[in-house]
Each structure stands twice: as structure tokens, then as C-alpha cells.
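Hi, can you check this record?
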Amino acid sequence: MSEMKVYLKGLTCANCAGKIEDVLSKLAETEEVSINLMRQEMTLKLKKDVPLEKMQETIKKTVHTFEPDVEVAFRQEKPSAGAACGDSCCCHAQEEGHDSCGCGHDHEHGEEAVFDKKFFLRFGLGLLLFLCAVFLRKGVAGAPLFLAAYLIFGYDVLLRAGKNIVRGQVFDENFLMSLSTIGALAIGEMAEAVFVMLFYQVGEAFQDYAVAHSRKSITALLDIRPDFARLVAEGETKEVSPETVRIGDCILVKAGERIPLDGIIEEGHAMLDTAALTGESLPRNAEVGERVLSGCINMDGTLQIRVEKPFSESTVMKILEMVENAAGKKSKTERFITRFARIYTPVVVLLAVLVAVLPPVLGVGAFSLWFGRALVFLVVSCPCALVLSVPLSYFAGIGAASKRGILVKGGGDMDTLCHLEKVVFDKTGTLTKGKFSVTEVAGDVLRLAAIGEAMSNHPIAKAIVESYTGELPAAEQYQELGGYGISYELEGETVLLGNSRLMEREHIPYTKANGIGTVVYVAKGGKFLGHILVADTLKENIAESLGALRKQGVKEMVMLTGDRKETAEAVAKELRLDGVYSELLPENKVEWMEKLKGNGEGKTAFVGDGINDAPVLAGADLGVAMGGIGSDAAIEAADVVLMDDDIGKLAVGIKIAKNTRKIVNQNIAFALGFKIIVLILSVPGIATMWMAVFADVGVCVLAILNAMRKKD
């Protein structure tokens, strides 16, 4: 199964987007179709061996059936946001003469303004004619002036409605607005028809402006993509595209510039602004030998950095990709609203027909009276306020969380955050600093342990190696024993370094250590030689962070760790955790996670940072990775990534998610409630068409503005 991205520049009608989605999802060639209206992007999952050219033509035809003015651009596989356009972007919009392919690159010369000179000229002239018609309404010139004003305000709506009728698409917003206002003209309500069309057009303009402004303000939060890198080669420095820099190359970053790629500082020192990544306002000091991440801003020094990762795998690109993909992962509420929108419009149109026909047939009032009331139903029948504001609320929530250094991978994950009642933690690197030091050595084992641990990047291994000051020969036949430890060959004998389970598995009698910390038992040639005790310390303010989680509604906190029982219980007691399970292998963590999840409404999250946490992160209701020090595998498996090591950010994320959910519920209640009130009041003739237009575009604008409210 392959995936195709389609960029739909100019698609703003939520009702039409739903129809496009519905038609394409029923094709034999598609598995799944999803339109993200905020990004003006459609994702299609295609079955195997689908002819792409034929599929592209079908998509184009379907889109233009509902929205003839929308520009369509294709890309089968979405390249990294840093890919050079024209290389792997596979955009077709330029081939068709468009300025924008929708891929995120700057083909456009500038954003088209909603309120431009043409807008003010058109509406100024229309309003002048309308006012003249109002004053001359009793004269011969009244009707022609009303008609002229009506055509100035609504010619494009009428034109689109006509084109769509020819294409077989009747019940769209243009047709419904045209029918309702033409109906008003037919029954002599000329002033009302003109004003309704004016109000509708102004409302649509404000709606387009609000959506464009919202989209721009959200994407501005993530404007961290570097434009260039200063490559140092043969004693010279030149500006190049970050995509062309390879692993091992040196780059120069001057004061005030954004670090373009991940790497290690080789020369210089500086204060770094990490706010775009972690949300942390205070700058941090960076020295030679430290790892720095792309997206940070060098505030006051000159740094020479040895590149560790290609641009496509850099931190900044991962952030952009995660947030970009998050907008396409719909929550249950978004999917429900999409399905509801497909039913809502035809139901309201059917009710309008019944209101217009049934009472006159039963002898209750004249047809013209009920026809006028039925027109109100037609105006209120477009669900744009819901279909636009709900995903925008989630999108804005994801943007607000990103600004605080919390990457949420989708709207569904935002909903899960709202309902967290249980949080399960890994210990090392999550609750503790992950910076170990040797506190006890029993036996002449430090050199043997350092030789083997020199091959590992584990924090405990580094602590042991750093504590030994002599020369270390290279370990032979080095092997990692998952969940147990390591083995290697020295002087023809096997050396084992690991936990008590390793000694028991190899049937080696050993003396159990009693100190607090992680114990590394050492054996050579099948004989136990001693142990090393390595201690870790709790993170600063960890108790306050856990307290903040409880304030956000987390009822139970549990720790799962591979560490020994005594150490784990000491940590759990100090932090007042509700449960602790120790000496676990990775597969044991997954089993315990399943038991802890339970079947209640409340959700369970797992918070971890290591590569061995990936399976349990994927198995939890919500996987939370510590991104600052976390492994790539953990970040990939997680649903939420905390870009620094502060668990307190999870409480902030829950608060943002709850506020987002509250705004979503407000918008649903407000939009549906107001529409239902107008529909009910229109039956006895209390609600006018002006109220109906406000219930459509006015409510939509207010819902969009509400969606953009601050969430943290």
C-alpha cells in the first residue's frame, strides 16, 4: 500500500471537502482518504499496483467537480521539509502554470490579501447602489438598483452555483445561498436579499482571513527550519544548503544564527537559546565536547560543530515532520464531525422542503409565507462552523504545546492526554538524572568492568569507564546480552558483567550486594570476582513535577524498571509513588503495562527515554518519550515527545489538552446550538434570513476566533 499527498490550494469549504473525501474513499483503488482543511492537504492510502497517472486524473476531476477553482498538486511520497523543490518534491502544480505546488516551498510571490483594493472597490460600489435603492425603493429606479447591488455582491456565488449545477453538484453552499436569496427576490424581499448576500460575502471574507491568519500564526511557532549552513572545508567557509552537509563535516555557526544540524562542538563556547525546541526561556551554556541540536539559536559566540546526523534526520526536521503529520491525525471528535457534516446538510435541506410544502398542503398559511421561512433553513444548512473550527482547535492546541517543547503527534493524542488517570514511569533517565557515578567497588574488578563497558554508550557503562584512570585494551568478542549485561573475551577467558539474573543464568555462585544503586556483578572464567555499585540521583524538582501531574487529575503513578528491587523501592518511597515493579526485562515491562492499563475510561501513559522502552511506549494508551536525551526508537514509538528532560512539561501538556478539549466542546455547542435555535425560530417566522446568515458565517468566524484562544 502506497501513500499519496495531494495539495489543494484554495480549498476552504468544509462541506465540499467532506464530499470530496466521501467520493474518493468509495473508489476501489483507495484504502483511506483524509482531508486536512487547515493545511489544505489530502492524504490517500492506495492499494497495490494502482496506476498513478489515472488516479491523479480521477482525483483532479473529483476535486474540480466540487471546487473548480482549487489548484491541485500531487506528490506520491512526501519528502522531508528540507528537500530541494524540483528534486524529490514531485510537484505538478508548476507544470500546470501555478505559482504554488503546496509543498511548503516558496513558489508564491506573496500571500494574496483577502481585504485588497478590489474587495473595497466592489463592496463600496455595491453598498452605494444598495443605499440609493433603499432611498428610491418606492420609485421606478428602486428595483433595478436593488438588482444591480445584488449582482455586484453575489455574481461570483451565482456563477459558482451555476457551474456546480452543470457538474451535477447541487447542494453546495453557493447553490443554497443563491436559491435562498433569489427566492427572497421572487417574493419581493429585495432589500433583505441584497443585505443577506452582502452579509454572507463579508462573513466569508472574514472567515477566510481568520483561517489564513490562524494557519500563519500556528506555523510561525514552528519557523525553525534553517536557511543555510556555513560549511568549513580546506580552511574556507561557504554558505551551502543544509541538505548537502554530510556526517563528519564541520560547520560554523556565528552569533545570532540558528544551528542548522545536530552535532558536537569542536571549538568555541556560547549561550544557546533553546526555546524553539524545549520551550525553556532561559539560555543554556554550551562548551567544547557538548552535543548541540539543530533549531537552537547561538546567542553570543562562534561555534565550530562536527555534524553527527544528516539534515533529514536532524532534530529540527523531526520536529517539523511530527507537527506537520499531527495535523493529519484526526481525533474521534474530528472524525465524528466529518461524518455528521455529510448527514447534516441533506437533512436540513429536506426539512426546508417540508416547511415550504407541508403547511400549505394542509391549509396552514400561503405558500409564499412558508417558502420564505424555508429559505432560512437553506442558509443554515452548511456545517462549516463545525468542520473548520474543530480541527483548527486541535491544530492550535498542538501548536501551543509545541511552543512549550511538547510535541503531540495528533488530535487523538490530545484527547488521550485529557483523560490520563494513570502514569507509568521508567526510572533511569526519566525520574533520575541518568548520570551515574561509582560509589562502591568490591574486589579487584574495576579494570575488568571498564574494559567491557568501554564498548557501551549506557550511562552506567560511562560512569565505570570514567572511574578507571589506566590504559584499557580492546575487548574481544564483545556481546550485549539484552536484559542481563555483557560478555567479552580476555586472555582466553569469558568475562561477564551484569545483574544478578546473569549470574544465576550462568550458574555462577555470587555474593549479593546490599547498597543502594545499580549493581554490576563481575565474573571471569566462570568464577565470581566481585561487584561495582553505581548510584544515580533523582532529577531536580521531580517531586514538584509529580505533584503537578496529580493536580491535573492523575490518580495513580507507578514505576517499571529493570533495576534491582532495593534501589527501585528506595526511589519509589522517596517520590511517594503508588506502585513499583523492579528487575524487569523489556518484555516484562510490556506485560505489566497491559495489566496496568485496565479497562476503565481513564487512560494510562508510559514515560520513558531508552531504546528498550520503545515496545512499552507503543503498547501504552499514550507513550511519552523524553526527547532531550531519548533514543530515536523511543521518540518514533511515542505519541508525545517532551523535548527536554522535565516531566513537569507533561502536566503542562495535559492542561493544554484539557483547554483544547473545552474549546472544542464550546464550539460544537455554540455552532450547533445557534443553528438549531435559528431553525426552530424560523418555523413561526421569528428568525429572519439575516439571523440565518449570522448562524452560518457569523458563527463560523466566532468559532474560529474561539479556537485560537490561548490554551496554556
